[in-house]
Every structure is written in C-alpha cells, then in structure tokens.
Amino acid sequence: MTQLSPMLVQYLVALCCLKWDREAVDVTIGDMVYDPAAEKERDVDVTVTIKESPTVTRAFKAYEVKRESAPLDVATVEQLCIKLLDMPSVTHRAIVSASGFTSGAQTKAQRHNVELYEFRAWTRPLQEQFPAFAMNGTIEECFPGSKVLLYWMQPKYALIAPDAKATFSVEPEQKLFGEDGKFHDKYKTFAEYQNELLLRSTEILIHVDPVTSVFRTFPIPFCSADGLPPSGPAWPHTHTLDVVSDAIHVETGSGLCQLAHITITGHLQWQRSSESPQPYVIEHIPSGEAFAGALISAGERDGNMIAIVFSPKTREIGFQFVQLAKKHHNCIRRLKLELPDRPSDA
C-alpha cells in the first residue's frame, strides 16, 4: 500500500468531503477558526461550509485528520473533542484517523457528540458500500488501472559552465557546491542531481511533441514476455535544460564554476509501471458506512498525486491532479479547494 504523506492524506480527506457534501460552498484545508476560550484562531485540518436548507443557509463542519501508527486513544480523542467543542461556529464535528480508534476513544467521542471516521484500505466489495455503481467485486476489479511513465534510457550529460577555463567532466559520485563554496544544501552529489534532471526533463517533455505523438500512436502493452517493463518503442532525443537557478558549482580542475546549461542525450521510452492505483475508503465508525472512496496514484515527487474520488450517493467520479507547493509539504494553511461547476438555483 502506497504510504501517503500526512499532508496528502489531509488533502485527500478534503476531496472526499467535497464529494460527500454536494451542497458545499467552501472547502478549506488548514483553516483557522476562532476559539473564544483561547481568544485566538486555531487550526482545523479541514472545514466545509455547506448550504443546508432555505432556512439554514450555512452549516460549518470541521474535520481533524490524524495519521498515526497506532489507534487513537482516549486522551488524544478527548483533546480533539474539547478543541472542536470550544469553537461555537462549528456546527458539525468529526475526527478522521488513518489508524483507527480504541474502544475507549469511540465511547469518549460519542459522549461529546463528535463523529469518527477511519481512513483505511478499500477492500470491501463495491456493491456493499457504493450501490449506485451497480457493480460486483472490489474497486480494483471494477476499475483496474496502471501508471505509464516516460523514461530516459542510457542518458548522457553535456555540462556547460561559461567560466570554465578548459573542458571538464563530472563523475556521479563527485560533490556539488553552492555559491558560498560549501557543499550544496540540496544536491550533495552529481548522481543525486542527475535524478532531479531526468525527472525535470520528463515533466517538461510529456507535454510536447514528439513525446505526445508517440504516446498516441504506439499503445503500451500490459505485459512483457522478456521480464522487462512493458514499454513502447524507444527513440533518440536531446533536451537542454537551463540550470542557472539551481546555483550548482562543480570542480573543473581550475576552481569552482557554476553550471549554466545541461544537455541530456539518449533515448526516450514510455513504460508501464507495475504499480497500480491504491484504493482507500473513509468509513464511519462504528457503522462501517462509506463516507467516500478513492483510487490514488502517488507522483514521482513528494506532494504529488492523482486521485479518483467516488461518492456512495451517486455515480459521479471526480478526477483530481494534486501538486502541493513546497510551503504545503509540512503544513497546509488556508488552502481552498476549487469547487466543481454546479447548476445555479435559478
């Protein structure tokens, strides 16, 4: 099972909230809600504002999301319940755990009228929790899928440093330096930097010809007889990257010089990954009713994923490409989800 980062779990719960509450007019990740007892705003992992009825035009829901290694215990749940209860603007309160709850924690939450949900692997047959789809079997059986990626094959690198006095080469294990002459704070060796260059290059090339044309023209097989990854044809290609902003300095034999451009030459190839999308579901505790389900494909970079979200109420399926900004990798603050287009009330 793919291990999603806490921030991606939090984002995914927000997507599921959006799918559950069709009347949502605002979904915010990392919201700040005023706590009169503390006389300050406090963070809430996910808030949902919904248009509930003609007489109650706004209902404010709050979800605390926890990704721990062990089930949440009484003390943890009690703290979260008190935190949510101290926010009178919140009308519906819930806690989502990726590791479950102890029986004592469930009793404590029930006493405080706080709903509990578990974010877990989705293994139950689709017809049990998502009857609107009218399908038999698990989500993986009903919605099989795989990931297709673009790869550089046997790449070579031509390095351009305008200040270098003579030709030079850089070995994979060679150290990289920053502008201050100290080891580079992000890329320690050229081998580590090569991985970044290949990923950066393919992220650009997948959107342009001839890469897109090859993908459309040559289907990628689902299996391979030779044990190698199923793949399409490989073709020669060259790609030059401007790397000045990386501030990479290398030893050229006559001192440190900054790299300005790097040209990658080799062959490009589309390959089908053995990794399949991972199924998750959010279930109500203790009833086991589904809140929402999702198929997740984690990206090659931290903070990236593709999510296909399912509602137990309708046959609608939501597709979401998630790319967290660096500032959101460790903490998300006031990030609003884009709401789907819905018919107006007119």
Give an account of the 3D structure.
Helix content is 19%, strand content 34%. It is built from seven helices and 15 strands. The model has no long low-confidence stretch (mean pLDDT 92). The protein has helices spanning 6-20, 74-85, 103-111, 126-129, 139-142, 190-205, 211-217; strands at residues 24-35, 40-50, 59-66, 92-97, 115-121, 148-160, 235-242, 249-251, 256-258, 261-272, 278-285, 290-298, 304-310, 317-323, 335-336. It is an alpha+beta fold. Helix 2 (74-85) runs parallel beside helix 3.
The 3D shape can be described as: globular
Number of strands: 15
What is the residue-averaged pLDDT?
92
Number of domains: 2
Q: What is the CA-atom radius of gyration, in angstroms?
A: 25 Å
User: What is the element string, with H for helices and E for strands?
Assistant: HEEEHEHEHHEHHEEEEEEEEE
Low-confidence stretches: none
Secondary structure class reads: alpha+beta
CA-to-CA gap between the ends? Answer: 45 Å
**Overall CATH class of the largest domain:** Alpha Beta
Described by strand count, sense and barrel closure, the largest sheet is: 10 strands, mixed
Helix content: 10-25%
Share of β-strand residues: 25-35%
Provide the CATH topology of the largest domain.
Trna Endonuclease, Chain: A, domain 1
Query: Total number of helical segments?
Result: 7
Proper CATH architecture of the largest domain = 3-Layer(aba) Sandwich
Strand order of the largest sheet: 14-13-12-11-5-4-3-2-1-15
